[in-house]
Amino acid sequence: MSEIENMKDAGNVELLSFRISDQEYSVDIMSVREIRSWTKATPLPHSPTYVKGVINLRGTVLPIIDLSARLGLEKEEQSERDVIIVVQLMGQTVGLLVDAVIDILAVPQSEMQSPPEIGNDAGPSFVSALTLVDGRMIRLLDLQAVMPSIEAQVA
Amino acid sequence: MTSPDPMAEIKASFFIECEELLESLQDGLEALSNGETDSETINVVFRAVHSIKGGAGAFGLDQLVEFAHTYETVLDSIRSGDLAVDPNIMRVLFQAGDILSDLVRLSRDGEVIEPSLTQDTYKALQDIVGETSDGDSGADDDIDFQPMGLALDLDFADDAKSVFTVMFKPSSELFESGNEPLHLLKALSELGEATVACDTKELPVVDELDFETGYLQWTIRLETEADKSAIEEVFEFVDGLCQLTITEGEDLPATDLPEIEEDETPEPQAVTPVAAVATSAQQATAPAPGQPTAAPRATVRVDLERVDRLVNLVGELVINQAMLSQSISAIGVQPSSEVSSGLEEFMRLTRDIQDSVMMIRAQPIKSLFQRMSRIVREASADVGKTVRFVTEGEGTEIDKTVIERLSDPLTHMIRNAVDHGLEKGDARRANGKPEEGIVKLSAAHRSGRVVIEISDDGAGINRPRVHQIAVEKGLIAPDTQLTDTEIDNLLFAPGFSTASEISNLSGRGVGMDVVRSAIQALGGRISISSTPGAGTSFTISLPLTLAVLDGMVVHVAGEAMVVPLNSIAETLALTTKELEQLGSNKFLVRIRDQFVPLLDLGVELGYRAPLDRYEGAVVLLISQEDGSRAALVVDSIQDQRQVVIKGLEESYGRVPGVAAATILGDGQIALILDPTDIITNASGRVSSDDTLFDLAG
After folding, report:
1. pLDDT tens-digit profile of B332-385?
2. Nearest by CB to B652, which of A40, A54, A56?
3. Contact criterion met (CB below 8 Å) for B22 and B48
4. How far is the C-alpha of B518 from the C-alpha of B540, rounded, in Å?
5. Is pLDDT of A85 > 90?
6. Most Cβ neighbours (<10 Å): which of A34, A80, B19, B96?
């Protein structure tokens, strides 16, 4: 405990890392609410392909985002071993469907690098930072960009 | 001491009280205008205004006090019989009531009150008083009414301080009514330099202490620039709930008090009863004449958020119970076993709890009707028509949210009824009708729904004109033959407005289509009926609550979903002879020689490709009050049940064709469909002729 505190004081960020089609991504652990096993989602009509649908999270309706589809990655076979990471950002709660959760990492702020610009790629970037842990590249997910935008409902 | 700012809390409760007082004021005025001029009715009106004035004075809301005071003076003349109620005075009284509620609202929201708001009515009130009491508007020698200062910080010519001795002995009713001596003492000490002494001689030993009785009395020596009325004002709320003597000078009141402990802080707070229920005989004091203590009503004010939480929890309970019964039946328990009968009992209790909780949210529709009565008064004055507003079934209870969200559509419809529905006075006379038009608003419970009817005795819908406008606006083809009902329903078509000249009143860019969608958003239906020369009536039918919905659980492409029961007219299995093909890939269903478009729900929702053949398919015939009809193809129908509505918009956003979500017995989320939305946005609809299907009744 005290060790973690110390590390925090030293300007560390704690990340929850997970795997999506052989790539290792992570989110700030402070935005993670819980991790749950895969349950069948109810599909929403006319929704983007990366919106898997909604599930029942203890009585509330939780939208599920298929991260591999969102990031444009090849999806492995849908399996029972998939995991939903429930994250909350600015009052909005969504579930992120990932292949597996890997680890909790404490990374010094100083070791976080901005992703290099590649050519004049204007596509949406879902990665806000990169870092190396034990020689593996960990991508920090830009949650804001991943979230589906809630349409303002016109009454 | 319990909260950081007790004044703010008191103020908040004052404004809540004001709402109730304004309501009884309206009631009283209605009764008065119906000729019930007995003293009790007048007293009710008078007391309401008086209490608002009193409270406003305590919070230094000067404009409110000033207006209420003039209002009160007029009412007092009526009460004393100096002034007879005539329609003109009645009109001013109503107007003043409206202004008063505006003032209360503005004061509550801390907004600036423009003098122009009150000016006219204020003057009208003063004119009335002037007629009867020769300009002597302020004076008032009724025993039970004490004129008082308008503000706490009045600047008197003699700013010499005077000394008052106040003897204050609260009775148990004071605590019962939720008053707190400490606040009064605090308010008093704000007037000047106060020395508070508490007399504890009646305080029994702890063993004999009845916690619901007040034993304490206070003597306050107050050195202040304010006058006696300002002190009385402090105690205005507890008038009749305590023994109070205010004497000028150092002398102690006649009540002989033994040695008084000089103590700045009212230390005996610890034993101050917070709420007293029993009234002990010795403590009962005679209420001041003319200021009857309101009979305690068995109500409790609860934060709406708490109620909503309870409603949500009960929703969870219902879902859990459904899941439990599903898993119990899955493990094959005998129906006659104890588990099964216990579960049945559990289900019954759950349903009872659910009904009771829903009832908490229900409120009488009266407040809404009162608001509408104001709309009628204002609208009729604007267009120069005399209108009598008749209401029925004000006690009908309906969900609070429904009441709130009904306000706008109803306002619009009431305005319409006054502006377009009723003819002008001379036209009415020419048609042999009384000049005074009638707008009627009624509410009633009918088979699990609330039915609200807005009707007028005007000219009815001018159908040739409606038809002509619809043609002009391109809503229908010129040669279209429509039945009367179909023409009436054109009023709900988007972009339709009959007023040839846009009056100030209606024609604000809001049409009946907006009204209709507002009603539909509440799970309601609206229909129209009209008889030429006899009037028009709109019928709105609403669910009792927004938290649950009666739905039909259906399966489409492997997904369970819920279709609101109120939109389903019938269900049928298609036979070859009912199915008619239109073009290459569209189908119509012939139902009693009428054609209804066939929509495949699975295709419309994007779940699957169209079926090869629709013979034998199960369809739901959707028929909305707005006339939109369609036959929706589903794979199978599971059952009918009540489902708990879960919002989808907060967590995800609006989904086309989907109204909300619910959780079924297996814990899975099922979508609640919005048939109107599906039909309107259906891909099956391309040809312009289809407009007819939308409007046809």
Report:
1. 877 788 888 888 888 888 878 877 887 787 888 888 898 888 888 888 888 888
2. A54
3. yes
4. 11
5. yes
6. B96
A94 interaction partners in chain B (CB closer than 8 Å): 651
Best residue in B326, B669, B672 to probe A by mutation, most A CBs within 10 Å? B669
CATH architecture of B162-283: 2-Layer Sandwich (3.30)
Strands B387-392 and B242-248: unpaired
- Please tell me the distance in Å from B605's CA to the nearest CA on chain A: 5
The dotted CATH code for B6-133 is 1.20.120.160
Q: What integer pLDDT is reported at residue B686 of this predicted model?
A: 31
Domains of chain A: 2-146 (2.40.50.180)
Per the CB < 8 A criterion, the answer to whether B405 and B523 are in contact is no
How far is it, in rounded angstroms, from Cα B57 to Cα B294?
20
Please give the ipTM for the structure prediction.
0.81
Choose the closest CB to A45 out of B646, B658, B661. B658
CATH architecture of B548-695: Beta Barrel (2.40)
Give the angle A93-A145-A115 at the CA atoms, nearest 5°.
130
The letter for the amino acid at B184 is: L
Give the three-state DSSP class for B58. Answer: helix
Q: Which of the following CATH numbers is that of domain B365-543: 3.40.50.1970, 3.40.50.620, 3.30.565.10, 3.10.20.30?
A: 3.30.565.10
Measure the CA dihedral B43/B45/B46/B48, to 10°: 120
Contacts of A41 in chain B (CB under 8 A): 669
